[in-house]
Specification:
It contains ten helices and eight strands. With 256 residues, it is an alpha/beta fold. An eight-stranded mixed β-sheet has the order 1-2-3-4-6-5-7-8, sandwiched between helices. Helix 1 packs across helix 2.
Length: 256
């Protein structure tokens, strides 16, 4: 039996978002003080769980919340990954809000690997949101290696060390170049904000995904940087083979 006070605390911070044959359970906001360049910046943090269990998606009653709590320990969620979103400022109502759809990168985001620019993009997009006054950073847990998973990404890295580029390595392992899906993230975005957003990205596919879902967005700001001899081929492959929009002339990307 779940204590009523526990159910009451959590029920106020749980939202269910239904889609065609599934849905997401959104938890938050949670106050999250973040060390950003030596200063403490306060964000609001949400996490969500995708599920096809109709029982868990029915209503916002105390009984529905109690059912969710009772099943948590048997879901083995630590064996998988759940996505989340970090929100800054008055994201729901601000006139100009930035959005970053950031694909998880274990090596770049956590270890600071120079083989990619992911770690730089993660931190820089947070800085941009703070400077802008509002924004949301979606951290997409099932996007590792452009959707192939961490173990497969490790094998792709081995091929890259033998001269294959990122696209070739994924294709040789039987994957598409990019198999990422933004359906869940867009559903959460729509629940958090209805006004237009500006996407932080070099990848037009992300902008197209939002537009195809009917989101009110048409603006984009680029995010190039942290270029080095270790990731030059990776970055140029993004432009030449994956359709990423090229950096402006005279930027660091063209200086190497």
């Amino acid at each position: 039996m779940i204590r009523p006070d526990i159910v009451n605390i959590l029920q106020q911070k749980i939202k269910r978002i239904t889609m065609d044959n599934s849905g997401v359970i959104l938890v938050g906001p949670i106050t999250l003080p973040v060390n950003l360049d030596g200063e403490t910046v306060t964000f609001k943090w949400y996490s969500w769980l995708k599920t096809e269990d109709a029982e868990l998606l029915q209503g916002d009653s105390p009984e529905a919340t109690e059912l969710l709590i009772s099943r948590l320990s048997s879901m083995q969620l630590a064996d998988g990954q759940q996505s989340s979103v970090l929100v800054y400022g008055d994201f729901e109502y601000a006139d100009n809000a930035l959005v970053r759809m950031h694909s998880i990168c274990h090596t770049g985001d956590i270890f600071g690997s120079k083989r990619c620019d992911c770690g730089f993009q993660l931190r820089q997009s947070m800085r941009m949101m703070v400077q802008n006054g509002s924004g949301a950073l979606f951290y997409l847990a099932n996007h590792e290696g452009r959707g192939i998973g961490l173990f497969s990404k490790a094998m792709a890295y081995l091929l890259q060390e033998e001269g294959y580029d990122t696209v070739e390595a994924n294709l040789e392992l039987g994957f598409a170049d990019d198999s990422r899906d933004y359906t869940d993230a867009i559903a959460v975005l729509r629940s958090l904000r209805h006004k237009p957003v500006t996407l932080i990205t070099n990848n037009p596919k992300k902008l197209e995904a939002l537009k195809a879902a009917g989101m009110n967005t048409g603006k984009r700001v680029p995010l190039w940087g942290d270029v080095s001899a270790f990731n030059e081929k990776y970055l140029r492959t993004k432009v030449a083979r994956s359709g990423h929009l090229e950096a402006a002339k005279g930027t660091e990307f063209f200086a190497i």
